[in-house]
Amino acid sequence: MGIINGKKFIDRIDQMNSEIWVDGERIVGMLSEHPAFKGIIQTKASLYNLQNNPCHKDQMTYLSPETGDPIGLSYSQPKTIEDLKRRRKMFEIWARHTHGLMGRSPDYMNTVIMSFASSSAALLKGKENCFPENIIALYEKAKEHDLSFTHTFITPQINRSQYNFDSSKEPISAKVIDKNEQGIVIKGARLLATQGGITDEVLVYTAPKKFMDPDEAFAFSIPSNTKGLKFICRETFVGEESHFNHPLSSRYEEMDSIVVFDNVLVPWDRVFFYDNVEAAVDFMFHSSFHHFATHQVLTRQIVKTEFILGLAELLVETINVQEYQHIQEKLSEIIVGLETMKALLEKSENDAAFDEWGYMRPSLLPLQVATNIYPKIYPRFCEIIQLIGASGMVTLPSEKAFESEIGADLEQYLQGVNKTAVERVKLFRLAWDLTMSSFGTRQTQYERYFFGDPIQLASNLYKHYPFAEQVNKINNFLSSSE
Amino acid sequence: MGIINGKKFIDRIDQMNSEIWVDGERIVGMLSEHPAFKGIIQTKASLYNLQNNPCHKDQMTYLSPETGDPIGLSYSQPKTIEDLKRRRKMFEIWARHTHGLMGRSPDYMNTVIMSFASSSAALLKGKENCFPENIIALYEKAKEHDLSFTHTFITPQINRSQYNFDSSKEPISAKVIDKNEQGIVIKGARLLATQGGITDEVLVYTAPKKFMDPDEAFAFSIPSNTKGLKFICRETFVGEESHFNHPLSSRYEEMDSIVVFDNVLVPWDRVFFYDNVEAAVDFMFHSSFHHFATHQVLTRQIVKTEFILGLAELLVETINVQEYQHIQEKLSEIIVGLETMKALLEKSENDAAFDEWGYMRPSLLPLQVATNIYPKIYPRFCEIIQLIGASGMVTLPSEKAFESEIGADLEQYLQGVNKTAVERVKLFRLAWDLTMSSFGTRQTQYERYFFGDPIQLASNLYKHYPFAEQVNKINNFLSSSE
Amino acid sequence: MGIINGKKFIDRIDQMNSEIWVDGERIVGMLSEHPAFKGIIQTKASLYNLQNNPCHKDQMTYLSPETGDPIGLSYSQPKTIEDLKRRRKMFEIWARHTHGLMGRSPDYMNTVIMSFASSSAALLKGKENCFPENIIALYEKAKEHDLSFTHTFITPQINRSQYNFDSSKEPISAKVIDKNEQGIVIKGARLLATQGGITDEVLVYTAPKKFMDPDEAFAFSIPSNTKGLKFICRETFVGEESHFNHPLSSRYEEMDSIVVFDNVLVPWDRVFFYDNVEAAVDFMFHSSFHHFATHQVLTRQIVKTEFILGLAELLVETINVQEYQHIQEKLSEIIVGLETMKALLEKSENDAAFDEWGYMRPSLLPLQVATNIYPKIYPRFCEIIQLIGASGMVTLPSEKAFESEIGADLEQYLQGVNKTAVERVKLFRLAWDLTMSSFGTRQTQYERYFFGDPIQLASNLYKHYPFAEQVNKINNFLSSSE
Amino acid sequence: MGIINGKKFIDRIDQMNSEIWVDGERIVGMLSEHPAFKGIIQTKASLYNLQNNPCHKDQMTYLSPETGDPIGLSYSQPKTIEDLKRRRKMFEIWARHTHGLMGRSPDYMNTVIMSFASSSAALLKGKENCFPENIIALYEKAKEHDLSFTHTFITPQINRSQYNFDSSKEPISAKVIDKNEQGIVIKGARLLATQGGITDEVLVYTAPKKFMDPDEAFAFSIPSNTKGLKFICRETFVGEESHFNHPLSSRYEEMDSIVVFDNVLVPWDRVFFYDNVEAAVDFMFHSSFHHFATHQVLTRQIVKTEFILGLAELLVETINVQEYQHIQEKLSEIIVGLETMKALLEKSENDAAFDEWGYMRPSLLPLQVATNIYPKIYPRFCEIIQLIGASGMVTLPSEKAFESEIGADLEQYLQGVNKTAVERVKLFRLAWDLTMSSFGTRQTQYERYFFGDPIQLASNLYKHYPFAEQVNKINNFLSSSE
């Protein structure tokens, strides 16, 4: 079958009838018509349409060797640097369509599934409770049916002390509480599945940590409508449907949900591994997950940064402040961030190397460096937008105001340099929705924590850096008499 | 008559029937019942009640020498340092009641009116088109009737180039377009009257600038329901009425409005001055406006910072992260900011001095220094809250969710260290509403720009600093042979 | 006897013949004529002269109740806030004389001795191995003879891991290795006695730490020429004697030394306590040491900051760059730092309170806040000087060059706005000596670490802050239904 | 002839007998034996030897098409990306030999001369007073004789106001004051020729500026011993000859000098252009000068950053502080800076393109971005070294101290984890010499201003950035109804 289009995606999601709770009520009826999901589902559908669009199809798909059907390129397993660069161009097309604002665009999760499959052999070597064949099977199914996914791996934030052990009687963090002939039984919760409930499948695993409980050492994927699986949503950040008033949240609000496992049975053929701490840790560190996933994420973040840069410059032109040195410095700060990210991404591709299973992985070091940079610069860029916008970020009359009797006043008093008041207000509402609305600030928090705790990222970069050569040089210099 | 209570305030506002536009519709009926205003009017009413409360009345009022009635202490004209300290304690009581979150609490504007009156003599000396007696008369009326005010002085942000001159045919920035026997006629707009429409009066003037048009060189105060005066509101940032879901915006969202003057007649007895650029500039720089207003503002900002510090620490305790050095550093950063602000405020009082009209002004330099600090630290403190809260800032189920069938799941999975899930979620919703909701980010922008463009604030601090003594010391040192 | 003058100080130091090593050689002959010490000893002598100067004597001394002799005011034990303010004015006079550049001016150590004496009762309550009477005796002697002191308390930086225990056979960090009838015997080293060797006495103790060895839990003071006591100096940072070329190091280079205890016998009447970990910890935390010492240090740092501000402004005027916004911002940054320090110091005095022994201590919190600020702003201010100076910080011909045949070229090509080349170069050499010479960078490191590890300072501020009230307010707000 | 070796270089420089003034005295005799120049000349000689070393000769030279002699590769005119990468490897070899600490290594100036020659056609098109053939001739001579160069282009820092015009009667900034049959006559000064006097030639031109005087619109190159040419040195920053005590300044102190033109006659065949403001501006902006020079500079700065990283890590290991999160963060900051610079440099090569004369230029944008980054991170990295070193940066006994009677004490008390005291002190002296000695701080200022005023760099990056595409995307988004 291969790639689907937007309609197929919507139909599939609407038919799943997964258990999704919003504001204390379980959603019944078409998910794609629910105000909290309508916009994002439409936008996601438009991405699926894009890969069917003759202008892009060649860049976004490849032909299945088995069936000859076109398959989404994000499922492709790269074997050359050229393959990596093709993948990146495909990421860019989808990212540009959504201006980098959809964190969980299909290519992200497809890439994750692809990386799991490509590294499944890491689980092979006679390891206990490991089923690499189930990863492969899922990957094949996903690519032939263009399945959509989310994943969930953060444990509830009860107590973040490093010396804390979960001692509650009833599970809080999701764990295996039983196993039987059909599979393993899961009870407990995971936090923050973005787009939870609006995908075909949920990939579930536990981020490795210091003292890992074997009951939490698992990974699997199940359909979103599996019995006992509940998605409890946060408050929606869709401002309202008007693109004028809420240009971003009306299109890109993805929703995050708490995922509750109420004695969920995971069939054996869906289990990748369980009760194996070593496998859990090892798989995360030796698989190509970080390489391929970060390759996609940075591509999206670069596109998003281009969007911010364009927005910043348009604000500057609209209120005519190009001449101020501090404005020039602020814009140059965004340029530096953008071009740095681009150079690091490109270096990761140029320094790519084969992994032990013959796949071409982008080099991790430049990617890691970028993941240390972006969580700091993204919030700063949002601040820069606010500092440029100044009082304009608060002077935000609505679409209806412009259409009403007082519209003429607004037209006169809110005009910009070479912009009508409508154009000007739309621009500032965009700046506001990106950086100051509930939607925008959630994006900031999302980018800040995408790769995990920033402090930990810095520690990891330090701990894994190959210092030997540089340190030797100093030692040699110190013992040299020249 | 003297001080009013909350009911009186609400009645008066409801009866004014000022022309206020929200989302394209003019408000009809009780303003105090409109969803966008209900919360803030209730909160403001509670402040008026507080000054009638026997526990606080002594600290919040003084007796009118003329009538013997209790008058709001914010109207008092300080003549001793002790008077200043009493005024500050009164500011604190109101600020604590609203946690520093109401920018335009009555004491702010009362203080502004008091400062205008105390400096009215600056306009006396035979200056053209100056009517200091009208300031005095307004001040007397305001204090005897406990009138509420807003002010508006920012010109529309059409073109911020320093070489730009307004050349539009129709006025954009509000100006005098005519004068007649009854008064002067104003046409054009002013930006961003906070609480515009929910006060008895609007004080209007123009912030001095480089190339000031005489038509803009005016100051006056008129009732909010003056004919031709329109308040066009931005989108409301009241999330909803639930204190659980939106603990701050449901209480403290003040609304900002564009103020349109549609050929508004300002009666002669309300005009302070007009068509006098020198007076406009001079009055702003030599009056006690900056001294007294900043004295109130910093007091409120200190209370707000205490609120942030308490919130930060409670978050830290709730997820048990006290042990991390970076957390300790972040909290210490807030402590340093808070204690610095307190020390500067106190110094401004201790260094207070008489002005030429016999009033005791707080010293400007420490106040100025604080106004250079706060616009930088407030946004940083909001960022610190977000960095402590991490994923908890996004895991935000609603009140109804807790009351529904899935409430039990939430209770189990969202509990904190020594907190129930309800308590924990309420806390994080508060952190979110303060720093990430549309209400919260508007507060950030408000504090950032309260005293004007931060770049300009730094320039002003430099330009007016008395360097001579320090520079002489260097010169002496350089020419010393010792 | 009471206060001494400069000559007396020099004579005393010259006669001590303490064991001081510079560049591998033990100093023989007059210390006051050694190139590494000449400048600082002269400068220190000028401070002693200042307290005999009729213009300042009243502000710098008080009369001994016992002898009627004038005593240095730094020895006075404050009992009122007014006493504190008098002490501060005295600190200022000395600090201004040296522009805040002498870290160990006599008032610093006199204040330390005074604080030890004022708190000696903390050791009274029947504690083992504690001799508070020896502290009192030393204090009496010091004030009657105007003794000069240094102190040393940092342990060698062998291994800074928090899990490290000194396991070397031979002592590295100084410890008690024996005791006998005459006293205790010390072997090992302490780091970084500033002015080590050029004072009458050395005060020795151990900064409290996590796992304190009882052998290190001591405090005492001994004459610098005690047998077995050696001061091993670092390289001198005196550039040369020319005030033109090296205006600061030729006057203020204080020297730091490693203090070696080679089986030094400390007589019983000089021991304050030993072999008592509890006393060591307790005395440091409950004595008034931090209060009074920090009060002096901040006063000096404020004077130093005034010097920096004057220097920065004079550079700005000399190359005529006042008009640049980024220059204005940089200067305003120094102003903000200076005024903040002043406000905090003043608040510490205004909030002073009696300790349990009846002495008036400045409030610790504002002092602590300032000690968290200064180590960050001082290096930044040095950077600002460099950023203003730009190429001028490198274009530094010498005094002799001006006096030579090519002097005329220099006069023509290095002139400034309203400055001759000589004046201009002297100014830039001053800026260089303050921020870029070995003398200057050592000052930076000195201010950065004066109060200890900056990370630890932040942790301490956090750990001892009284959060309860602020946290309660949040809890109350969250449970309020209003 | 082609490449020279170290001996040849020294002989040539010693024989020139250029007019160099140090501390008021003109140098007579062998320059290579003068204490201020001995170290740097030896080091430079070792670089020339390196290109004759069989291990490196292939990487560092190419064969002259005319003579078949080996020519320094820095003179090669790149025509492919591969050529650029070869050039970069050659830069690295020399930079590694000096740890990036020699700013004016021969390859830098050779590259400048090469870029001038490659772009000389920019002056061809019938422009007045332009002599591109002289550039070519000089280039040919330089490469065949391996000439060494410095350049000088900064005007004296008399008055940096943007509205200042040099109105002095006698020239201050060097200008053409006459022309005659032999050539043009120059009078006045230029600032800061690094290595001025120890090169065969001096390249002189004027950095383009807003209001350029035609008399200053020139470029030429002349031998360092040209009549009337004087180099007036700043104070030397060679600490002393001991590599132990001053490991860096004893080897790498380059000296900066003021260059005085005392009616210097520049022969016509050495003039590139004069009295042509348009040519002066145009040549700087359209030639490949910035491209090729920055390509070399960044390569050196990357090598220097590797040196800093190695040093930082070795300090960390020596005092055993790897476990601290703030240390890990500081080291990761250096890693991020280093890897970012590497990625940008590589991108500039991969994005290289032909210029209009057929040479392959590295892409300017990534280079520009790096030049905006390095002046900020280099000083920060020096600060990090100081923050890691803490008290160890001041505890610096000398080589002689170790060799003396008290050497045993030092050995005991200054040992490190797995380091003897000698090793440990040598390491800290290195850290000190790099970041805190007069040599080190001059390096900081040098890197900070290498590419000019950092504020201006940011403005330039902004002003030349191609925003159109990004801005259009925003406009399209705003007008989209999807």
TrEMBL record, chains A, B, C, D:
InterPro entries: Acyl-CoA_Oxase/DH_mid-dom_sf, AcylCo_DH-like_C, AcylCoA_DH/oxidase_NM_dom_sf, HpaB/PvcC/4-BUDH, HpaB/PvcC/4-BUDH_C, HpaB/PvcC/4-BUDH_N, HpaB_Deino-type. Keywords: FAD, Flavoprotein, Oxidoreductase. Residues 6-272 form the HpaB/PvcC/4-BUDH N-terminal domain. Residues 282-478 form the HpaB/PvcC/4-BUDH C-terminal domain. Gene3D superfamilies: 4-hydroxybutyryl-coa dehydratase, domain 1 (1.10.3140.10), Butyryl-CoA Dehydrogenase, subunit A, domain 2 (2.40.110.10), Butyryl-CoA Dehydrogenase, subunit A, domain 3 (1.20.140.10). The keyword NADP does not apply. GO terms for molecular function: 4-hydroxyphenylacetate 3-monooxygenase activity. It comes from the Bacteria. This is 4-hydroxyphenylacetate 3-monooxygenase, oxygenase component. It comes from Bacillus salipaludis. The gene is hpaB.
